């Protein structure tokens, strides 16, 4: 359990100390944020704020995980490394998009096909590797069964699993990306979900099928639950430290570098902890904001009318007169409720089969 504490504290300290250094570097290079002209007028003052801040918590998470293993003498696990690979890979795609958009002054960044290709390559590699690395009991980091609080139903096979994993990765990455429109909103919401996965990993470790004392109908068939909790703790700590600088008024934005990385990490944790469908509730704010865009686009194409003043949803409330801080705090409350209900269902699922 020391690993969880070490990972969180190291990640927190690294981003608290490292983010201002990154801010100075990006400001000196002139790598500032582009602001939409059709958005809330209050956002125009943010033009030029350093972006690509996701670099800070990606590196902090990787370093925190590595140092934790060194300090505690524990070894890395396939599940933990795969989640980190997915986070870093998606972050790299986002970094290339940010770099071209900001440094090369091409407003759209990576072309849509190139960006999608990068996400597909990383996602497919993760899906294929997640079905490898069997342990002594034959368990792999991921399962070809669908899962809610545990696996259920029949195997969907490796091909359909890869498609399903890709859908989850792309959906969560885009969900975090759409949420990242107000100071601290996506970062704070992500902290809550990573905190939930720390709890889930610890609980699964305590009720693991690999432990003869807990093996039974209510045990969890997860390959490396404790190490997934370590990864989640490193992410939670790193995002907490970044939030200090990202909260209103933000001194730095995470950019696509950060939002794609966080979305990938969330999807990876859900897949490897066998809580895939539960993620839709734990990350309920990301789902809600994504659906607001789907509804807005669908309504306009079908009827020529808009449901919201502006999508994503957070900007609708800004245009209704809510202050940015008010929107962020109330959306954090919604996200907190989603996490509470999700963890409640996770525990209820264990009670139901105990």
From TrEMBL:
InterPro entries: Glycosyl_transferase_4, PNAcMuramoyl-5peptid_Trfase, PNAcMuramoyl-5peptid_Trfase_CS. Pathway: Cell wall biogenesis; peptidoglycan biosynthesis. It is found in: Cell membrane; Membrane. It is a multi-pass membrane protein. Belongs to the glycosyltransferase 4 family. MraY subfamily. The chain crosses the membrane at residues 6-27, 48-67, 79-96, 116-133, 153-172, 184-206, 252-271, 277-304, 325-353. Catalyzes the initial step of the lipid cycle reactions in the biosynthesis of the cell wall peptidoglycan: transfers peptidoglycan precursor phospho-MurNAc-pentapeptide from UDP-MurNAc-pentapeptide onto the lipid carrier undecaprenyl phosphate, yielding undecaprenyl-pyrophosphoryl-MurNAc-pentapeptide, known as lipid I. Its EC number is 2.7.8.13. The keyword Magnesium applies. Its cofactor is Mg(2+). The gene is mraY. Coiled coil: none annotated. It comes from the Bacteria. PANTHER family: PHOSPHO-N-ACETYLMURAMOYL-PENTAPEPTIDE-TRANSFERASE, PHOSPHO-N-ACETYLMURAMOYL-PENTAPEPTIDE-TRANSFERASE HOMOLOG. Keywords: Cell cycle, Cell division, Cell membrane, Cell shape, Cell wall biogenesis/degradation, Magnesium, Membrane, Metal-binding, Peptidoglycan synthesis, Transferase, Transmembrane, Transmembrane helix. This is Phospho-N-acetylmuramoyl-pentapeptide-transferase. It catalyses: UDP-N-acetyl-alpha-D-muramoyl-L-alanyl-gamma-D-glutamyl-meso-2,6-diaminopimeloyl-D-alanyl-D-alanine + di-trans,octa-cis-undecaprenyl phosphate = di-trans,octa-cis-undecaprenyl diphospho-N-acetyl-alpha-D-muramoyl-L-alanyl-D-glutamyl-meso-2,6-diaminopimeloyl-D-alanyl-D-alanine + UMP. It is an enzyme of class 2 (transferase).
